[in-house]
Amino acid sequence: MSIKPKKSLGQHFLTDDNIIAKIADAIPAREGDRVVEIGPGTGALTESLVDQYKDIIAVELDQRAIEILEQKFDDLEIRHENVLDIDWEELSIGKEKTHVVGNLPYYITSQILFSLLEHREVLSTALLMMQKEVAERIVADIRTKDYGILSVQTQLMATPEILFPVSRHCFSPQPNVESAVMKLTFDKGAMECSDKNLKTVVRTAFNQRRKKLSNALKPIISKEKLPDGFDFDKRAEAWEPPLYEKLTAQFVEDGILT
């Protein structure tokens, strides 16, 4: 059973059985946990999931795919919903842990990632297929060209790890980019600042990444008011993620951000 992939939905269906098995095996779900698959398509990965885990929910936007899933899996709970509209708290009620797995449409990868990070308190892990370049940005070290907004925010809110690369030949149709499976473990404690304020500081800093932070942060604060204890002569890419959390908390303490 198959459907013609829709470009508008960014559909690239995973077809490689070895990769499918590796993804399913990498989910650390145990008895009492829930596994939520986002964008299952026609159910290639879903088949392995239902064989290994008892509590599966599939979230799919394409009605054509839903009809195929309903034919293939009698007892699978399927939700016809946009992944960005998922109520993660509701899906996690009564569960020890909730694990997310999915082959993400490349064009909304960042949006999905930030949505998961926003709801990290009710999630345990996420195994996500994404463009390899995006995965490399997430795990990037300071003072590298890949290090940026995505790196700082993700590394402060989760522990990211690239599990393995995935060739474009493992999909139908083949994408124009290489992919990778990323594992996010939501094991970080509460931050000293809000997600909203952190995002403001980090995005302001990296919007002018070639400038010293003393200049890049001017939209938030003037130079003469910069707090002590920070080296603002450095560029944004030279600061470790915890420094951004610390600075944001200081801005809130000083009344610059609320």
Number of strands: 9
Regarding quaternary structure, what we see is: single chain
The whole-number mean of residue pLDDT values reads 92
Please count the helical segments: 10
Strand count, sense and closure of the main sheet? 7 strands, mixed
Order of helices and strands: EHEHEHEHEHEHHEEEHHH
Protein structure class: alpha/beta
Strand fraction = 15-25%
Strand order, sheet with most strands = 4-3-2-5-6-9-7
Radius of gyration: 20 Å
Give structural notes.
The model has no long low-confidence stretch (mean pLDDT 92). This protein has ten helices and nine strands. The N and C termini lie far apart (53 Å). Helix 1 (17-25) runs parallel beside helix 2 and helix 7 (149-157) packs across helix 10. The chain is an alpha/beta fold and 258 residues long.
List keywords for this structure.
18% strand; 10 helices; single chain; 9 strands; elongated; two-stranded antiparallel sheet; 34% helix; alpha/beta; 258 residues; 7-stranded mixed beta sheet
Secondary structure elements and pairings:
Blueprint: E1 13-14, H1 17-25, E2 34-38, H2 44-52, E3 56-60, H3 63-72, E4 77-80, H4 88-92, E5 98-103, H5 109-118, E6 125-131, H6 132-138, H7 149-157, E7 159-166, E8 171-172, E9 179-185, H8 195-207, H9 213-216, H10 241-253
Parallel strand pairs: 2-3, 2-5, 3-4, 5-6
Antiparallel strand pairs: 1-8, 6-9, 7-9
Helix pairs in contact: 1-2, 7-10, 8-10
